Amino acid sequence: MRLSRRPVCLPCGLKREAILQIQRKDAKSVRRVLGEWEEERLLTPEQAGKLSASLDIIPFDWRRLAKYCFWIAIICLVIAFAALLADLKKLFDLLWRRPSLGCLLFAVLAAAAFFFGLRRRARTPDRIFSNEAFFLLGVLAVATAITFLGLALDMGNKRFSLLFLLAALVYAGLGLWFPSKLVWLFALLSLGSWFGTETGYLSGWGAYWLGMNYPVRFVFFGLGLTGLSYLFKISGTFQDFCKTTYIMGLLYLFIALWIMSIFGNYGDMYRWTKAGKFELFSWSLLFGGAALAVIVLGLKYDDAVSRGFGLTFLFINLYTKFFEYFWDSLHKALFFAILGVSFWLIGSRAERIWLLGQRRLGREDTPAKAMEEG
After folding, report:
1. Element spanning 21, H or E
2. Domain count for the chain
């Protein structure tokens, strides 16, 4: 938590003190900064005392607990529903024999879930997780309804990719209409599933599509989503969905680059096993270059998302190559010793950077004291 050292202008004649809720680990930092401002005469003792008294330390992170509880509740409800269908075999057989009825039933359930979710969000917009839980139930109901629709239309194994496309269009429309980032996230996941199945064996191209295997084609798919997030940002029309699209685009891109650094652009295992390790090294260089590029962009534009992706996948690339080249050639004791020392050096460097940042903030804490504050 960083606080500016500029003078603070406090309104006079306040009848009651404002309350600032902060975590326990940040309380000592805030009070230390207030003390420094008082020593530098940026604040009077009365003002510093009022500000210190207005701090309300949060004893427990109830928001995070609520988030986890709602996710667990959704998972339990889905398991309970699956168990109920298993017990109600007659109902399940009926829906399976008459998929149109199942499609209609789950479409109604999805509409009800979205209706109650929107109504609840309008009444209590601050209850984010419980509102999104209704949207998640609606998303699952839509997926089940589309599955029964595919059975009703007898789409078979050849064109079931169109069901993913239909799901992506439905989720995208609902997500933009509500709006809901959660529903939009499922639209992007469904779109990726459609792209993978449509350009795979269902299209007749086999392992290759326009000369590209799965990892290579998903590199371009991830770049497309990243470009779409940029269009959202500059247009200002769908600003709420910019970050979600950006993160999913980078996720598709870097997972595809990682797999490509291992398997290259080969479409079958036989040709890949015949390829030499150094023949695949150029793909690793491409992967590392992309990671370095987003790190530089993140530093230049102060983008924490791109910095995080770049650093994470740069280390994944390095350690993947370490396992690939040295797992068989090194003794296992030496292998894990090198691995442990490398992580020790990274941790020491990260600790040094953290301590430097603390000194810049005027803190002289030792790591032990910082742990006590937490």
Report:
1. strand 20-23
2. 4
For residue 338, the enclosing domain spans 330-374
Largest CA distance in the chain: 80
Q: In terms of C-beta distances under 8 Å and separation of at least 24 residues, what long-range contacts does 96-99 make, across chains too?
A: 96/151, 99/148, 99/149, 99/151, 99/152
Residues 65-91 pLDDT 10s: 776 777 777 777 777 766 766 665 666
Closest alpha carbon to 10 in 61, 40, 48, 38? 48
Residues 192, 196: Cα–Cα separation, whole Å: 6
d(CA 83, CA 176): 33
Question: Is the previous residue joined to 179 through a cis bond, with omega within 30 degrees of 0?
Answer: yes
In a domain, 194, yes or no: yes
Residue 203 belongs to a domain: no
List the beta bridge partners of residue 23.
Answer: 58
User: What is the reported pTM?
Assistant: 0.69
pLDDT tens across 249-291, in order? Answer: 999 999 999 988 888 777 666 666 666 666 677 888 888 899 9
232 belongs to a structural domain = yes
Tell me, yes or no, whether 308 lies in a domain: yes
Token pair belonging to 9:
């202008």
Sequence length of the chain is: 374
